[in-house]
Amino acid sequence: MQTQEKRTYQAVIGLEFHVHLATRTKMFCSCRVTYGEEPNTHTCPVCLGHPGALPFTNEKAVELGVMAGLALNCEVAPRAVFARKNYFYPDLPKGYQISQFDAPICTNGHLDVPVPEGTVRVGITRVHLEEDAAKNVHVGESGRMHGSVGSLVDFNRGGTPLIEIVTEPDIPSPEAARATANHLKAILQAIGVSEADMEKGQLRCDANVSIRNPDGSFGTKTELKNMNSFRFVERGLVRELERQQEILEGGGRVTQATMHYDPVTDEVHELRSKEYAHDYRYFPEPDLLPLELNEAWVRQIKSRLPELPEERKARFVEQYGLSEYDAGVLTADGDLADFYEEVAAQADPKQAANWTTGELQARLNEAGVEVAESKVKSGHLAELIGLVENGTVSRSAAKDVLGSVFETGDSPSTVVEREGLASMGGDELSGIVDEVISANPDEAERVRGGDKKVIGFLVGQVMKVTRGNADGGRVRQLLMEKLNGQ
Ligand code: ADP
Ligand code: ZN
Ligand code: MG
User: N or C terminus of the chain: which is more exposed, having fewer CB within 10 Å?
Assistant: First the structure.
């Protein structure tokens, strides 16, 4: 990215995530959690905030919250307390949100995030349980409040179980922020606490960002709100850091504010300045008992945690002999890691990693397709690796084969046959090798005289004539046989 060169400052970034938990019912009532259903069809007096209605805690949500905290290396509090966070908004019928304040369920964890330069350890300040607000729907073309002709409220979402995950300001760059978000998402999905589908709003991210003062202390931060794509988190942070730097270079001061990033214009603008800290008048929720998280129960949850991406990464390095980087790329996406393991069970593991992280992932990215939806199945890739290994197709032809499998879902051998992509062999290749030898008598003579370096040139000539449609190893072998009788 060309913005890299312009950076002379040190960025400080902390992230806050809101994650819907994969429960069947809401946080404090037994209404079902749904997505995309007819508005206001999953409500009851509790989640509509009727006076006198009493909430009760969803045990499954507590379990999933604890599980997330454990996966993020947190300490689980023996006692956690729900608190009322008071504010007015039409999507909050009670006039307060039930959240956790000074006694959250989990604190003091960390996450090791793989980045190209190595690993960034990001502290996890806290994980707490709360309920989501309902959803305001703005009527009008824009779909946003600005310019709408009216607003409606869909209470189906109100009361959906959430965890909020807050990181320490340990993240040094927009790229690392994106990597942190991706890594977190992979963990949440791997342990099954959330589908974390950003399109359904199951995972949302706020980014706090500042530029470090020359003396090393923290500068004033601003907050980028509610981004539902990690690409936008990265882009928004790049833009916001540029804005802050310009202010500082002009001798000005950054003021605390909430910012909005518009991906269409690739610009940030101020939503509201945050002159005073919010006063939510938190107090303990009188209608709910504190949570007593008994140690044996926590231990039992811990024992049920599946293999985490970090552990899987270490296993990939160990079991398949992959580089840390390849193992990190593969395990950052649980589906990709599953796919890889299927290929590695049937083909050379290193080749499997090269093809999966290289050629296949490039095509997936380009087409915007997830590996699970791809027409290339693990068996296809394993078969293709085998075809290269036994010399049936050259490496470059294999890339074309993969392209066709990607488009059609046909097996590699079908594609090779149909498109005539098999490597040249037998008499045809032997004939070409003879031609190249007679067309390059000097080089041929030097090889006969023991000069091994020149053989590469001759291999290249043969490959040129076959248009890359031959196996390099096979060509080299033929040349040696013909020139040296080996
Ligand atoms: P607030 O009181 O504004 O909510 P917090 O201290 O609770 O601020 O932190 C909220 C988030 O902002 C956390 O993710 C934290 O890591 C991050 N953060 C705190 N200070 C800074 C800073 N100077 N620059 C960037 N991020 C920060
Ligand atoms: Zn309800
Ligand atoms: Mg705070």
Answer: C
C-alpha span between 13 and 226 (Å, rounded): 15
| pLDDT for res 2 | 43
Which of 6-20, 58-72, 335-349 is predicted least confidently? 6-20
3-state SS, 206-261, equals EEEEEECCCCCCCCCCEEEEEECCHHHHHHHHHHHHHHHHHHHHCCCCCCCEEEEE
User: Residue 441's pLDDT is what?
Assistant: 85
- The owner of tokens 């490496």 is 395
> Of 375, 475, 480, 468, which Cα lies nearest the Cα of 422?
468
Specify the residue for token string 């044996």.
Answer: 296
- For the entire predicted model, the pTM comes to 0.76
Q: Which amino acid is at 150?
A: G
**Domains defined for the chain, CATH in brackets:** 11-300 (no CATH), 307-419 (no CATH), 426-485 (1.10.10)
Residue 316 CA to residue 384 CA, distance in Å, equals 22
CB 401 within 8 A of CB 372: no
Minimal CA–CA distance to 308: which of 58, 72, 60?
A: 72
Mutation choice for ligand 1 from 206, 211, 221, CB with most ligand atoms inside 8 A: 221
Buried residues in 168-197 as b, exposed as e (16+ CB within 10 A):
bbbbbbbbbbbbbbbbbbbbbbbbebbbbe
What does residue 442 show for φ and ψ, rounded to 5 degrees?
-65, -50
Q: Which residues pair with 85 in a beta bridge?
A: 97
Tell me if 242 CB under 6 Å of ligand 1: no
Task: Establish whether residue 14 lines the binding site of ligand 1, counting it when its CB lies within 6 angstroms of any ligand atom.
Answer: yes
Judge if the beta carbon of residue 169 lies within 6 A of ligand 1.
Answer: yes
pLDDT digits (tens, 9 = 90+) for 100-140: 999 999 999 999 997 878 889 999 999 999 999 999 999 88
Q: Whose CA is nearest to atom 19 of ligand 1?
A: 169
Give the separation between CA 15 and CA 180, rounded to whole angstroms: 9
pLDDT digits (tens, 9 = 90+) for 468-484: 777 778 788 888 888 87
